[in-house]
Prior knowledge:
Layout: E1 2-7, H1 11-23, E2 29-35, H2 39-49, E3 52-54, H3 57-63, E4 68-71, H4 79-87, E5 91-95, H5 102-114, E6 119-122
Parallel strand pairs: 1-2, 1-4, 2-3, 4-5, 5-6
Amino acid sequence: MLNLAVIGAGRYGSNIICAFKQLEVTGVAKLVSICDINEKVLKSQSEKYNVKGYVDYKEMLEKERIDAVAVATPDPFHREPCVFAAKRGIHIFVEKPMDITVEGCFEMIEAAKKNNVLLQVDFHKRYDPYH
C-alpha cells in the first residue's frame, strides 16, 4: 500500500485530499498526513478526513513514511517542497504551474532525476473543451 501526503490543504489541496481518501477503499493507497501553514484550514481538513496534520512540510516528510506527496501550495511555493521531497526519495505530484521560473522547473527536474523519483505536473484542464 502506498502512503500518500498532501502539502497545501486549501482550495486545490482539498480536492486532492478527498481523492486520496477515496483511494483507500481500493487497498492500493492510504492518505497518511496533510500539511498547511493555515492552522484553521489544517484543523478543518485533518478532522474532516481523520488524518494527521502538520504546519511544517519538512517535519511531516521527515516523521512520516511517505511514498508520494501532492504539492498544492500557491504557485510561488511549489519548488521548495518538491525538491525537499525528491531528496528524500518521495514521488511528487505538483499542481500547475510547475514553478514560477524556468530555473525552478529545472531544479525540480534535476532533483527528481538525481533521486530517481517520479515528478508529475497536474494539467487538470488539459482536455477541457473550453481551454
